[in-house]
Every structure is written in structure tokens, then in C-alpha cells.
User: Fold this.
Amino acid sequence: MTPELRSIKIFPDDRGWFMEGWNAINESNEWVQDNFSWSVAGVLRGLHCQIGNKAQRKRVAVLKGRIWDVIVNPETKKWETYELTPGKFLKVPRHYLHGFLALEDSMVWYKVDAPYDKESERTVLWNDPDLNIPWPSKAYFNNNIIISEKDALGISIKELYGL
Assistant:
């Protein structure tokens, strides 16, 4: 599977909008968990993955707001970036590292095909110099990117893959 950006059909009317986020007819793969996160502008989450047979395939969509989404291919160590807004979703293959920066207050919904497993979760530093990911400028957030302690203590891509 390769990463894939798709549009979601949204049906607006004078009350707001309706969206069918997923159905088994169009995607026959089994999803086992839905996750939601709310992030204020400037929050950076990632880069995360689960390793081994606990690896997760993800389907990421923004319900409100705007994010800078990043995935990293574990074989090539190459990254791809996507700006996600409501009406689009991104399919993230198993084993890929995934993270995002909330460009504005944002609600993110993602489906996974394997449950969370703390023992197989890995976090790679979002600013690993060997990846050199072009995150939006800190100046965009008055030099205030917000990350969790877990993400701040992540490892390098070299450590993760024993390079």
C-alpha cells in the first residue's frame, strides 16, 4: 500500500453539513478503533508508529481546522507532507511514521486497523536532522510549538532502524 490522499464527499445545507466518513462497501479492510484528538494551534504530535506485527494502518481526516500532516516511509526514510482540511483524508500504510502540526485549532479523526499497543509504540524526534522535515516555521506560532514530553524524548530514525 502507498500513501493516498482522497476527498470526502460533504453535503452542506443551511443547517451545516453531513459527511459519510467511512463505509465497508468502499473499503473492505477491517478497522478496529477510531481515535479523535483536539489540538490547539501550534501543537505538534509525532512522529509515531507501532512496530512488528502490531503495526497500524491509519486513515486520517480533519473534522475541524487545518493540519500539516507528515508521513515517513520506513524503507526509504523519505517523508511526504500534506495539508489536511475537512473534506480530505489520508491513508497511511502500516509501519510508516506519522505526525502532524495543528496549523489552527483542529479536531482530527483517525481510524486504525490494529489496537494501540504501548510496548510496540515508537516515537521518532519530529526534528530529527537525518529526516530534515520542512515543518512550518516556528515564527508562524510565535516560536511556541507545543509538544508532549514523550515526543520531546523521541529517538532518532537511525536508532529506530539500527542504522
